Amino acid sequence: MLKNLLKLFFPETCCGCNSLLLFNEVLICLKCRHDLPFTYHHEIPHNDTIKKFYGLIPLEFGVSMLYFHHGGIAQELIHNLKYRNQQNIGSLLGELYAKDLQNFEPIRSVTEIIPVPLHPKKLKERGYNQVDSFCESIGNQLQIPVNKNVLLRTQYNKTQTKKNREARQQLTRAIFDVNFTSNDENKHFLLVDDVITTGSTLEICAKALLKIPNAKVSILTIAYTQS
Ligand SMILES: [Zn+2]
Fold first, then answer.
1. 86 C-alpha to center of ligand 1: Å?
2. CA of 77 to the centre of ligand 1 (A)
3. Which domain of life is it from (predicted)?
4. SS3 (DSSP) at 87
5. CA–centroid distance, residue 207 to ligand 1 (Å)
6. 204 Cα to the center of ligand 1, angstroms
7. Are 107 and 190 within 8 A, CB to CB?
């Protein structure tokens, strides 16, 4: 009742297209929900997400939920999720995607969900990691715990400005590391990020996780963009 009254005086707008939401609509309007550009990667074994890692890292599976187009719904949703503190968008998308993934056999062996960590400085500025709500939502629906401790993003030294290409690459590679005990061995980690473009960040993260004995790694992103 109060919620409806609030809506009357402060109408909410759709996070996908900015049109006014109807009383029965939450976060995104029915049209945007209907138009969500699903990739259906989980139904395609050699999909575009996993293909990015062929020859680079061994993955159990790789999937993305939506296609990311310039000016499209996915871009608008992720922008709101990332910069306007609309973490409930992540929860909603996670809920929707978990329904699709319920019958996706390979996800059943996943033991932990790992959100790609933000740089500590960025986390402090933003106050939250934009993939956390999405991870929690999928984890809740599929009964998989989220682990934010095993993969770390370490501070890098900004004062070293004069670096050749190789040294810079080493610097980038050093950004992620793992902190594990024998309890973390023999696990299947599902690495989650918001958007995949080149896949280089996810590749570095996956390589770090694969340092754990007998680790298996898979990748899941909210959106996929052609690079
Ligand atoms: Zn809309």
1. 15
2. 10
3. Bacteria
4. helix
5. 38
6. 35
7. yes
CB 179 within 8 A of CB 149: yes
CA of 70 to the centre of ligand 1 (A): 16
* Domains along the chain with CATH numbers: 1-35 (no CATH), 37-224 (3.40.50)
Pairing of β 176-178 and β 151-153: antiparallel
Q: Ligand 1 mean position to 18 CA, how many Å?
A: 6
CA 69 / ligand 1 centre spacing (Å): 15
User: Residue 11 — very low, low, confident or very high, per pLDDT cuts 50/70/90?
Assistant: confident
- CA 202 – ligand 1 centroid, Å: 30
3-state SS class at 16: coil
For residues 161 and 159, give the distance between their C-alpha atoms in angstroms, rounded to a whole number: 6
Q: What is the pLDDT of residues 50-90, one digit of tens each?
A: 999 999 999 999 999 999 999 999 999 999 999 999 999 99
CA of 33 from ligand 1 middle (Å) equals 7
The single-letter DSSP state of residue 20 is: B
Distance 76 CA to ligand 1 centre (A): 10
How many Cβ atoms sit within 10 Å of the Cβ of residue 22?
Answer: 12
Question: Is residue 3 predicted with pLDDT exceeding 60?
Answer: yes
| Residue linked to tokens 């810079």 | 168
pLDDT of residue 225: 94
Alpha carbon 6 to its chain centroid, in Å, reads 32
- For residue 72, the CA-to-ligand 1 centroid distance in Å is 11
Rounded to a whole number of angstroms, the CA Rg of the chain reads 19
* Torsions phi, psi for 87 (to 5 deg): -70, -20
